[in-house]
Every structure is written in structure tokens, then in C-alpha cells.
Amino acid sequence: MDNRPIGLLDSGIGGLTVLKKVIAKLPNESTVFIGDQAHMPYGDRNREEVVELTRNSVKFLLSKNVKVIIFACNTATAAAMDIIQKEIEPQIIGVIQSGSLAAARVSKSKKVAVIGTKVTIASHAYKNEIQFRDSEIAVTELATPHLAPLVEKQASFEENLKEVKNSLLPLKNHKFDTMVLGCTHYPIIRDEIRAAVGEAVTLVDPADQVAQYTENVLKRDKLQATGPAKHEYYTTGNAANFTVVAEKWLNDQTVCAEHVETGD
Questions:
Q1: Are 126 and 114 in contact (CB under 8 A)?
Q2: Does the keyword field hold Membrane (predicted)?
Q3: d(Cα 63, Cα 164) in Å, to the nearest integer?
């Protein structure tokens, strides 16, 4: 047994969607979450910048003696996971492989749409992973760079829906029965995305599979904790604002985020 915490990183608050599923799935596990809000959005940066920013967050998590690290950020997973895994001992668990597996399983028409940041979409990571699992699946990729900043802004449902509809316009003439929410911010505006694409489209949130895979890794490597669980929250941005969002999204009034500097 191993009571060291699980580390999670994201460019902002979107990774809370993954954290929520991990806490629910693994109630005995402690966690340390770092949101790099001072440098978001990652999706508009080049790969070298994303790698360096992600490396800074990883160093912070390692200082907290974490036993595994979840890249709760699609952009970081696409741009930096393979590079940084070679630099550290703890296993890194990414969201893209998990989301791709789920999409390949649920699509009946073998037509899948993926929305994400510019970096994630440009990497073709989802397309490659999905088609690796089923080469017959047609994957339509769309960069939706305005959505993650929209989530961080905490706008109204009406404002969110307007931007979601505008962002998804290029998909209007494409047929698909499954859409991968290829950015961990997007499940926070799941209702708006659902309203835009309709009830017939299955929305895939990679966080579900990430939580399951994390459990499998902990069992395999005999790293499971006995509890009690403790959860720590850090942000490079405004700690008070982060706390408000985290309390609401996690339905946990005990959240108390701290501001940290992870380097530039």
C-alpha cells in the first residue's frame, strides 16, 4: 500500500473535471492538483512552450512526492507527455488514449468528431489513437480555441451557447454520431455543447476512462492507498477565484486553493 498522493496538472480549471472522476472512483486516494492559470491557454502556444510549462508543473508535483501523475490536459498530453515521461520515474497517465478508446467503443456509425485546442488538433493525436483502435472510423477534427478561455471566464449559459454554436459551425455539414470533448475544460460546458449538437450525438468525456485506468495502474503496481484521503489545490493564478470554481464544480466547500509560482 502507498499513501502518497496522485498528482494532477492542467493549464487551468478544466482538469477539475478529471479530478472529480478520480476522487469519486478512488475515495481512499489523496490528490494534489496544480492549475497553471497564469499561462493558459496552452492551446495557443507552440509545442516547446507547452513542454516547458508542463515540465514546471511536473516539477512542482514531484516536490509533493506524488506516486503517479495524471496529465488532466489534452494539450499537455499531446505535446509533452512522451517527452516528460522519459525524464521522470512516476508513470504519467494521459487523457487522449483514454478518450480515444471510449470513442472507438461507442461510435456505431464509425464517424467521430473531435474538438480541442489548436495544439491538440494539430498533433492529430486523437485521430491517430482512434484509428489505431479501429482503422475504419472516420475522424473529423476541429480546433475550437475560444472555448477553454470561455470556461475560465465563467460566462453565462447564453453567452457560452452562442460561442459554442459559432465554434462548431464548421461541423455543420459533417455527419458523426460521437463527439470527443478533447479538452478537459469542455465538460464544464457540456450542457451548452449538448444543446448545440443535439441529443443524437454521444459526447465522450475522457475523464471517465482516465479514472478507471488510474485505478488499474495503482492495482497493478501495488500503489493503492488505505486513506483517509486529503486533497490539495494549487494555482499559478488567482487562488480565491480558483477556490470558488472548484467548490462549485466539485461540490466541496472544503476546497482552499493556494497560489504558487512554478517558473516561467
A1: yes
A2: no
A3: 38
> Residue 119 in contact with residue 79, Cβ under 8 Å?
yes
Q: Given this structure, which CATH class describes domain 97-206?
A: alpha beta
Catalytic residue among 81, 125, 183, 245: 183
According to CATH, where is 3.40.50.1860 located in the chain? 6-94+208-259, 97-206
* Residue 144, marked binder: no
141: which residues sit within 8 A by CB, 6+ positions away?
113, 114, 116, 121, 124, 126, 127
Residue 11 assigned as binding residue? yes
Q: Reply yes or no on whether the pLDDT at 264 is more than 70.
A: no
Average pLDDT value for the chain = 93
42 assigned binding-site residue: yes
**Residue 70 and residue 6: Cα distance in Å, rounded?**
8
Which among 18, 19, 73, 147 is annotated as catalytic? Answer: 73
Torsion angle in degrees (nearest 10) through CA of 215, 219, 222, 228 = 50
Q: Confirm whether 73 is a catalytic residue.
A: yes
Which pTM does this prediction carry? Answer: 0.86
Second CATH level (architecture) for the domain 6-94+208-259: 3-Layer(aba) Sandwich (3.40)
101-155: pLDDT as tens digits:
999 999 999 999 999 999 899 999 999 999 999 999 999 999 999 998 888 888 8
128 is known to lie in a ligand binding site: no
**Residue 43 labelled as part of a binding site:** yes
pLDDT tens string 5-46: 999 999 988 899 899 999 999 999 999 999 999 998 888 899
